[in-house]
Each structure stands twice: as structure tokens, then as C-alpha cells.
Write a structure and sequence with these properties.
Chains A, B: This is Glycyl-tRNA synthetase. The structure is a homodimer. The first copy, chain A, contains 24 helices and 28 strands. By secondary structure, chain A is α+β, with helices and mostly antiparallel strands. Among the domains of chain A are: about 280 residues, Bira Bifunctional Protein, Domain 2 (BirA Bifunctional Protein, domain 2, 2-Layer Sandwich); about 90 residues, 2-Layer Sandwich (Signal recognition particle alu RNA binding heterodimer, srp9/1), CATH 3.30.720; about 110 residues, Anticodon-binding domain (Rossmann fold, 3-Layer(aba) Sandwich), CATH 3.40.50.800. Chain A starts with about 60 loop residues before the first helix and ends in a 10-residue tail after the last helix.
Chain lengths: ~700, ~700
């Protein structure tokens, strides 16, 4: 199977990690915002080195080969040669994914009483036309002038400039351990870049490249074309120049429905299905605000990625306060402000959400609340707080349509990758769909205090208006309808004095139309509004489950030293694909009934279990399951047959305790629920000192 | 948004119920099978009347309007006019779907240690070309000769003939309550069928129509074209004739991947992703058989439907026994045999799986085991055993490729709809992919006893063979390779006697080729095989979650009589979208802390909860939640403030008990887990006789 060139495009990550970001919805921010101050010691920097839990450099090849070997994932249609960028999850990958989604559902949907919506994967053209995706959900791509390869423009600039900077460092005799993957990167041969290896650059050039990289996401098409031209960026796999200028390419998959060929797309995001159902959700919520909805499912944007997204609808008036913000004000995040990035720097600053909202670095309480909830969710999954940062979008990334947007980025051997977006989409989408369909997607609420409105009102005498103006009737009426308050006030006086007024209606006769008191009445009137109508603003946190899953695997990977190095994946018990490994000491048939009973009992508690009764040593069997991230192990030995005690082993410390079956199962339930830690368990249950047999 | 005509095609159900069946994989059965005997009283019959749990005729309009009003589902992109056949699930629909899937996962994946696989929604062309989907995953469709409308051929024949039979019954003065939806069907105006209303038919015609309908799934393209022509079947919405013959239309959605436009399709089933990973799954299972895999996700076949499917890989030798068959031998199902259908009848016969396998009505233990597990799964969801039947596929439905196939069908107001397929796909798919890729998808196992094979072997002398035959070399070799044992034995004697043999090679010269002892050696040889290699056969149960969900809603719907009729959805507690409704007696703020604490406690137990503190009466509030199928309700009243007791109400009986908070929560947990029933709870906890306030 031929791999089309697009799939190399932007394909920097080994699992569906083509960038989800789009430059479409970009806005200039309207709020003044505090600039984080940089101390003088903070310098522009490349992506920090990726280290394991034990502080050693991460060997990406080792992680990737483990994940494939144990079938966390594999290339889709592998036996047909695969499809670049498409991956299947095997049993442990599926289980990990299901646990991440279940955690998401509990953390967001249940905890916040969100209303779930499930829409089909296919969205009709008309919807995505209104939302702006048809025209603007695009990336900038550059085409190889000879072989026609299409690459994502910003990614190729990044790749080449980073390679040149590494070459320069080498020439200066500095270490080039970049993002833990130095060996691989050094070896990669970039065509048309013959001189990069070990070529020293001028200091000014180093400075310029670093600054470009820090704000790479901020270049538009013209900017990217200029960079490619000025710095002689070529297709690294062919050495050919690109045809310039770069151009946009839509990221959606087109399909057509049925024989009638109704045009449609695979949905590019789960949000649209929620927007379209806004009125039904509001009704389901008994018309009460605020309101949040959620969707979990796959989206297609030249990658098919599992996503979970939620929309929080908030009243745009009143500063977007959030009634639970005080619960999260002390949550600390690493924040990378847009001003820092524009200054060509990449240092994130630790800050609490309370401070960040107060000083304006985060726009409002509602978005601040969700940023905090995202941070708590990610750490609950087992991601390292030091390897999470929130990067504010820069102007060209965001939108005329977006008000404020930050990405949660996770550190991996590929550098920082965006895994969660958190955007203030304002009233944009609901307004688009209201305009396109004429169905008002609004909230109507009783005003606590009725609103008294006094204003000039112009009423025309319909019965006389028609016969008088005939075919010009509508044109005249339209001008009357659009009169402003000031003009109406002036005209009302004129009408009172002269009994007639003259207005400009360009389409009619000489452009002047006279209206007498018989035809029009303009008076000041007072009315009382009991209902307020508004389009809510939308805060949208959106999660790339596949990216989170892959980053988590890298962040929890480490190797245990011993007679040989053994890989361990330290997933938290609630997230681990399998909770318990059951190992009988030997293949002795006497162990079978006890093992069968334990399996049944653990399954009854909803704990996924794997039995390894192979002939390998106990140490070997545990080690195989450390690779799968199984946090707990039970050994059944001859002692167990006598007194029904069993041992429980902790994956991370390899320490063991021994107790009766019921006590051990109770301990496992608590560890998985998170109501007790291993150190608490090992403090209260008798230690077991029997050696692990290697 | 214009609705293309295809979306009316076959669109007989109000929620994505376009038939999933395809005629592609059809086979003639190779096994002799017991014919179920029909007693004389069993006559051809139309779909039985759909009744509610309380035995009253089901009013489909009432169910459908309830499900839409309470946002179980709604048309996709409703505000844009909708897309026929596409539906969104709202909060209760999502929750119901999630509970059905969770039950499925526990019942199949966990209980049977299946290996889950998750593949992308998009499958490359090459895979579906090999599997036969590109050429043969089609329905027969008929095109309106005037306006070009495209309708599914079998469905339009069915619709028209059923309408004529109803007209006949009317003319005979019989009741026409067909499938509980008589009113609607009667009103529907079928163009070109002016005479159907009340037109009496000849007895012979009634008999002919009934027989056609009983075997409607067995007609091929020629058969359907003949029916349309002979019985003057026209497009019911235009009255126009169809252009004949009918033709096939592929059911898959075409997409292309990336700029290179790699052709692909939305996957038509979840099975292919599992087949392609067979070797990896076998390795994950430590090379041991039998092995089962599972996938949950959406498939696209001109409908986008949530599906769950599993594959059980079984050794084709040894009669496809199943080691747990004895556990299900007593499970009783309603079986509709193919022979009964071909006789023009539709009566299902109650039979246990033990009997059915023994007498050959079900082909083997493994498929019998899964039929039983499907029956148990469906009844666990709350479907009525009397409204479930298993219909064996007829010859033209199944395949050269399928060995045996039954559908689990569910009775609804639309008649019997197929919700689960259970097919023996034999070694077909694995063989296709092996052939296409050269990657052997086989099981290799050590033979317990080495196999000694004695046979005649013909070896040609390669070095001399080439120069002697030159370009004919391959043709001659190919004939040698295909000699049977008998022929080889005869030739070996000839060769020994004459020093030469003559074989027929039609492509070469005069068709006779002489081979001397110098060129060929034919001798009996003995070798020992220690390994056995085989392609496993695959049993595939495949579940249409959307159809199951809709059928369940109809089957658990009933109305409670009282001052006014009130609708109830009697989902089992484990399946119900929300488990508990919390109603404070009034808006008195004193109730708030107690309600908040209960909510928190119930959530901690993982029980989804809804608070209704509106000003409606308690009776009204309960009634609203009966419509959502909420099985349990807690009332907090002034007594609760004094002694912390609360009442628990059962949806189905409206009976109430009163006890302390902990006891009530414990009872709820047991009811939802299914470890205790309401009658047990109400027997052991004090009854509460306080009147429900209407």
C-alpha cells in the first residue's frame, strides 16, 4: 500500500499526533492582560530534555518498541503495509483508553452534572459551512516543487531550524541531548542540509532561529513563505525547493451521503453536535443556566482521533464568574503567556489560578476554573505536574472568533505536545447557526427586576402605507425601521411642527419621500421588559485522548536496574489496563482451585485480572507484567494451600505483604479506588520478605 | 437542507434502522439440517401485534413522541432540517447507550476474557477489496423511471404487498391492527396504489403475497425484478414505475485519505480490524487457542450506527465443540428455521440450545453457545423473551462465504427487526487477507502426537528441467505439482518399469510431455510432522446497539392509568439512564443540606442521580421521571429532618419503604447491582404508606 505524501505531512509523532490546532479561528484579544515578568536568568531555550520518573534520559526507541511489542498499539492494516498516521489499539491500549475516558467522564460529566450528547460521525455540509470550517479549517502546506510532496509548512521550518541549531551546538562542542532523543535526531539525514552536521552558525543567526522557533505558531501564510525563502528551507526527504507561496489545505474528510450525494464531512470536532442541540439541552435542563454539555467520540481531521470535549455555556454579562472558582483558586499550573512567547522565549511560570485570574493572565474565572480542572484531571491520570504546561495561543493562532485560548501541553521526547485545548469561543458558533437557520439559540430568562425602556418608536399606518407607496412600500418601510433614536427624536419634533417629514429613500423616485402625520406616528413610549434574551458564551475544553495516552506512557516509563534492565510502566492503579496479576508458584494442579476462586472474586469486584501460570520464574512473570503496567500482583504458594494467606506485591517498589484472601482483596479495592496508598497498606499489613525468584 | 432520495430508501424505522443485512456473503449450506415440524394449526401470519408490558396495544406515536420530547434522541442537525436516518442521542439516550455497552462489555469481554481491539473508523481500500466488500457489500435498489428516486427493492415490494393485504383484510371486515401501528399505516397514502384501501383480493393472491413476504429476504436481483414487474410495484411516493432490472448499490461511504487521495471507506463493520490483527492477538494470548476478540465502535454503511462485535476463533477440526456449552444447554430460545420460512411460514418454535444443537437446527456447539449468550444478554437488558426470536438466514441472504447465520430479531411496532447477527464466517476472512498479503494468519500448534505421513512425492530435477523445457518449464512443473496420490502411485510404477512417463500438459506442443527418470523421481516417502498449522474458523456475533436501544424503549414502555394516563419506561435498574430521583417535599431551604449530602453520597457510590426541587407536586415530579425510566425515588420530608429517615419509591409498583439514609443507599446499591429485588427490599424494610401527592 502506497503511503500518500500527506501522511508524512506534519507527521512528527509516532501515534496520531498530527497537530489538531488550526489557524482558522484566530482573533486579536480584546482584553488588556498582565505581562509575566521574566527574570534575567531566563533565556530562550529549546525543548527541555525528557527524562524518566527516575531522572534518567528517556530512550524513545525503548518506549515505542515496548508499546508495540505488548500491543498497546500497532499500525492500522499493518499486514497491508500500514497507513501512516493510523493506529489500532490492542487489548492493553483499549483498556488504558477506556480507563482514561471513564476517569474523564467521572471528573467532568458526573462531577459537574454535564449533559452528554452523542452525534453521528458525519456532519452535513451546511452545518460546517455556517460554522466556518469549510472555508477556514485549514493548515498552511508547502509543495515540493519537483516530486509534489506536500508538507505542513510550520513543521518543516521547525524541523530544519532545530537541526541547524543542533549542528551549531555540536560545532561548539556542547551536548546535544534534545528531548531525550538525540541519537535518533542526530542520525536522521536531512537532504539539502548537507552542512548542518557540525556547522557553526553566527551568534546573530542562532538568536534569530531561536526567536523564530519560539513564535513559530504565530506566522501566517506570508510569514511562512518568507521564512522558507529567506532561510532556504527545503523538503528534508528530497532536498528539493518548495513552490511558494505556501497555501491552505482543508483538514476535513469529505464524504457524501446516499445516492443523492448530500455533501458532508467527518466531523472535525465534537462541539458542533452540541451547539446544534443547544435549545434541547436548555429545555432538558429545565431552562436553567449555567449549563454544560459533553461529547465523547472520534473526530476526523486527516487523523481519526478519539476525543472528549465539553462546552460550558455562560452568561456573557457579569464577568464570567464561576460559582466554584474558590475551590480551585489554589491549584498551581505552569503558564506560558503569549507575551513571553512573542519575546522569543519559552519559559513557563508557575502560578496559581487565583493569581492568574486576578492579574489578568487568565481572562476570567470560568476559563480559570476549567484550566484548574484540566490540571487536576491530568495529574489524576498520572502525568507529572512538572511535565504539564499551559500555553496561551498567540494572535495568529487564535481568532477573530476566539476570545482567549490556552493549550495544555505535555512534555514528551518529541518536545511539548498539545493535548488539551481550552478556548473561549464566545457566542460565535451559536450566532452562526442562529443566523443560518433562523432558529434562535438563545437563553430567555425572567429579569429579577423588570427593565423599563423609554424610547422613540416610529409606527407607520399600514392600511394607508400600501396604497400610497405600492411597490416601493418595502423600501420606505425598511428606511423607517432603521432610523436611530437620535434621528427619530428630531423627526418627531418636525412631524409635530409641520405635520410631515421627508426621509431619504435612494431607491425611490428622486430619493426623497414625504410622509404626513396620516402615514406615520413618531412618539416616545415606555415599555417594561420582564424577560432578558441572550446568546450564551461558550468555554470549550477539548481533549485529544490519543495524545494524552501516548504522553502518559512516556511519562510513566522507567527501567528497573538489576541483573538486566527491565522496563516498567508506572500507571496509577485506577488507570492501569490490568489491575492484578495472579501467579501460582508453579504449575502444580493444587493451585488451580484457589486461583480460579480468586479470579472470580476479583472479577466480582470489577477488577480486571490476568493469570500467568506459565512455567517462567515468578520474577520473570512479574517483570512481563511490569511492562504492561499492572500495579499489583498476587502470589499463591504452598503456604496459601495451608492457611489461605496470599502475598500482594507492589509494582513500583516490588515490596510485598502477606495476609488472608479477604484482607488482600479489600486492600486492592482501596488501592484502585485511591482511598489508600501502598505505603499505608504496607504499614498495616505484615511484610512478606520472601525473595522474588528471578 | 434537501433530503436526498436515498435516505428514504429502506428507511422504515424512525431511528437509524436501515437494514444492516447484506446479501453479499451468501452461501448454500453444506450441512444437512433437521427440519422443524409445523403443526397444522400454524399458518402463515403477518407480524404479530406489538403490545405493551401490560398487554395493551402499543401506540408507537406515543413512544416516539416521549423519546423525542425527553431528548432520548433527536434528528441530527434538526435546526438545519435534519438528515433522514441520522440521529443524535441526548443525555438519557447517551446514558442508556453507555449502560447497554457497559453491560455488553461485562457480559462478553470480561466474562470470557476477550481481547479488545480499537481500530480507526477508516479502512483502506485494499483491505475491503480483499474481504469482498468493495464488490459485494451491496443492496438491490430500484430507480424511479421518472424522478430518479432510488429505493431498496425488497423493502418497496414488502411495503406495497403488506398494504394490499391490509386493504384486503379491511374489505373482508377483519381488524387491521398490524404491529400496533395500524392507524398510521392505514393513513399513509401510497401513490399508484389507489385501489388498495378496501380492495378485496382473490384467496390465491392473498396466499401468494403471504408466501412472498415470508421469504422476501431470499430473492435475488432477478427475483426482485420479476416481482416488481409481475405485481406492478411502483414508487409509493410518486406512483411511477421503476426502471428494471433492479441493480446493486454499495453500502459503504467512500473517503480518501490525505492529499495523495489514498482510497478508503468508513468501515462497514468492526470485524476487519480484528481479523487484520489476528497474529498479534494470538501472540498477546501467548499463542493459545481458542481466542476471542472484541470491538466496540461505530460503523458506517449508509447509516452510522454504534455497534459492538466479537470474533471467536475456533479450531475447525473436532466439530467446533465449546467447553462451556453445558452451562447454556438449557437456555430456551424461539427459533425460526430456514425450512419453515421457505415453506412460507413465520412461526418460531421454542427450543433449548441443547436440543437445537443435537437435532442439527443449530449447526454446532460454539455457535449454539453464543446464541445462548446473546439471549441471556438481551433479557438482562430488559427485553421480553417472548419478543425475541432467532431467525436463520435463507440461502440467498447468506453465502458462499458464510456457513451458518442466524439473526436475533426483536419485536417492535415495525414488526420483527434484526438487532444481532450471529454468523459462522468459517475461515473466509483470514484466508482472503492471507492470500492478499502473503502474511499467514494461521495458528501453529505442537501436535500432542507427532503425525507420521507416508505419501508419494514427485521431485523434478531442477537443473535439467530448465534447459529441457525452457519457457514451458512452469507449465510442466505445475502439472507435476498437482498430481494426486493415486496418479503418483501409478506413475511411480510406470517410471520404474519403463524409465519414463508421459503426462498431459495441454499448453505444451501436442499436449503430451515425456519425462525420463533423469528428469523426475517419484517415490513413497515418510516424514514426521510435529506442528499442525490451521486457519481458525470464526464465529461472529455482531450487535446493532441503536436497534437494541430503540427496541428496548418500545418493549419497556407502558402507561399507568389514573386521573390521567402517564407513560412509564420500565428499564431494569442497571440499564436505566438515571438511577435515583431525589425530591425534597418542598422548596423549603431546610431540605437543601440533606439533599446535597445524599447527592454526594449516591455519587460516591457511582449512582447517577437527578434532583428535582421544582415547585411541581411530588406525584408530578415522580411521573416526569417515570418517563425517563428512573427506577428509584427518594423523598426528603419534614420527618427526615427530625430522624434522618427517607423514603424510597419503586417506579413500577409506586410502593414505598422508609428507613435511615444508610439503609436506603445500601438497598439502592443492591437493586442496581441486581443482588436484591424490589420485592425482597419491600419485604424487609418498613412500608411507607404516605400518599403520593398528585
Amino acid at each position: 500500500m502506497r503511503q500518500p505524501s500527506l501522511l508524512r505531512f506534519g507527521h512528527r509523532f509516532s501515534i496520531e499526533f498530527q497537530s489538531k490546532r488550526s489557524r482558522v479561528f484566530s482573533s486579536s484579544p480584546t482584553s488588556q492582560r498582565f505581562k509575566l515578568q521574566l527574570s534575567k536568568t531566563q533565556q530562550p531555550e529549546m525543548a527541555p530534555e525528557m527524562t524518566t520518573l527516575k531522572g534518567r534520559p528517556l530512550d524513545r526507541t525503548a518506549v515505542d518498541s515496548l508499546l508495540r511489542r505488548r500491543f498497546f498499539y500497532a499500525p492500522t492494516a499493518d499486514i497491508y503495509g500500514g497507513v501512516a498516521g493510523f493506529f489500532d489499539f490492542g487489548p492493553p491500549g483499549c483498556s488504558l483508553q477506556a480507563n482514561i475516558i471513564e476517569t474523564w467522564r467521572r471528573h467532568f460529566v458526573l462531577e459537574e452534572d454535564m449533559l452528554e450528547v452523542d452525534s453521528p460521525m458525519i456532519t452535513p455540509y451546511a452545518v460546517l459551512k455556517s460554522s466556518g470550517h469549510v472555508e477556514r479549517f485549514c493548515d498552511f502546506v508547502a509543495k515540493d516543487s519537483v516530486n509534489g510532496d506536500i508538507l505542513r509548512a510550520d513543521h518543516v521550518v521547525e524541523e530544519i531550524l532545530e537541526a541547524r541549531l543542533r549542528g551549531d551546538k555540536e560545532a561548539r562542542g556542547e551536548t546535544v541531548e534534545v528531548a531525550g532523543n538525540a541519537k535518533k535526531k542526530k542520525k536522521k539525514k536531512l537532504k539539502g542540509e548537507t552542512a548542518t552536521e557540525g556547522l557553526k552558525l553566527d551568534d546573530a543567526v542562532v538568536q534569530e532561529y531561536s526567536e523564530i522557533l519560539a513564535k513559530i505558531d504565530n506566522y501566517d501564510g506570508t510569514g511562512l513563505s518568507e521564512l522558507i525563502s529567506k532561510h532556504d528551507i527545503r523538503n528534508p526527504s528530497s532536498g528539493n525547493k518548495f513552490s511558494l507561496p505556501v497555501y491552505t489545505q482543508n483538514l476535513m474528510f469529505a464524504v457524501s451521503i446516499g445516492a443523492g450525494k448530500l455533501p458532508a464531512y467527518l466531523r472535525p470536532e465534537t462541539a458542533q453536535g452540541q451547539f446544534l442541540n443547544f435549545s434541547k439541552l436548555l429545555e432538558f435542563n429545565q431552562q436553567s443556566m449555567p449549563l454544560a454539555s459533553a461529547s465523547i467520540g472520534k473526530s476526523g481531521r486527516n487523523e481519526i482521533a478519539p476525543r472528549a470535549g465539553l462546552l460550558h455555556y455562560v452568561d456573557p454579562e457579569g464577568g464570567k464568574k464561576h460559582h466554584r472558582f474558590h475551590e480551585v483558586a489554589d491549584v498551581k499550573i505552569n503558564l506560558l503567556d503569549r507575551h513571553v512567547q512573542l519575546a522569543g522565549k519559552t519559559n513557563a511560570i508557575p502560578i496559581t489560578l487565583g493569581e492568574a485570574v486576578q492579574n489578568g493572565a487568565v481572562d476570567n474565572e470560568t476559563i480559570g476554573y476549567f484550566i484548574a480542572r484540566i490540571q487536576l484531571f491530568l495529574t489524576k491520570l498520572g502525568l507529572d505536574p512538572n511535565k504539564i504546561r499551559f500555553r496561551e495561543h498567540m494572535e495568529n493562532e487564535m481568532g477573530k472568533l476566539l476570545y482567549f485560548c490556552v493549550d495544555a501541553e505535555l512534555l514528551t521526547s518529541y518536545g511539548w505536545i498539545e493535548a488539551v485545548g481550552c478556548a473561549d469561543r464566545s457566542a460565535y458558533d451559536l450566532s452562526c447557526h442562529t443566523k443560518a437557520t433562523g432558529v434562535p439559540l438563545v437563553v430567555r430568562e425572567s429579569r429579577k427586576e423588570p427593565l423599563v425602556v423609554t424610547e422613540f418608536v416610529a409606527e407607520t399606518h399600514k392600511a394607508k402605507f400600501g396604497p400610497r407607496f405600492k411597490k416601493d412600500r418595502k423600501a420606505v418601510q425598511s428606511v423607517v425601521d432603521q432610523l436611530t433614536q437620535d434621528v427619530k427624536e428630531k423627526l418627531s419634533l418636525e412631524l409635530k411642527e409641520n405635520g410631515k417629514i421627508t426621509i431619504d429613500v435612494p431607491e425611490v423616485g428622486d430619493g426623497k419621500v414625504e410622509l404626513t402625520s396620516e402615514l406615520i406616528k413618531i412618539e416616545q413610549q415606555t415599555r417594561t421588559e420582564y424577560t432578558r434574551e441572550f446568546i450564551p458564551n461558550v468555554i470549550e475544553p477539548s481533549f485529544g485522548i490519543g495524545r494524552i495516552l501516548y504522553s502518559l506512557c512516556e511519562q510513566v516509563f522507567w527501567t528497573r536496574e538489576g541483573s538486566e534492565e527491565r522496563a516498567v510502566l508506572s500507571f496509577p492503579p485506577a488507570i492501569a489496563p490490568t489491575k492484578v496479576l495472579l501467579v501460582p508458584l508453579s504449575a502444580n494442579p493444587d493451585f488451580k482451585p484457589l486461583v480460579a476462586n480468586l479470579t472470580k472474586e476479583l472479577r466480582r469486584q470489577g477488577l480486571s485480572t490476568r493469570v500467568d501460570d506459565s512455567s517462567a520464574s515468578i520474577g520473570k512473570r512479574y517483570s512481563r507484567n511490569d511492562e504492561l503496567g499492572t500495579p499489583l500482583g498476587i502470589t499463591v504458594d504452598f503456604q496459601s494451600l495451608k492457611d489461605e494467606t496470599i502475598t500482594l506485591r507492589d509494582r513500583d517498589t516490588t515490596a510485598q505483604v502477606r495476609a488472608g484472601q479477604d484482607e488482600i482483596i479489600e486492600a486492592i479495592v482501596r488501592l484502585v479506588k485511591g482511598t489508600e496508598t501502598w505505603s499505608q497498606i504496607s504499614a498495616r499489613l505484615p511484610k512478606f520478605e520472601g525473595q522474588e525468584l528471578e
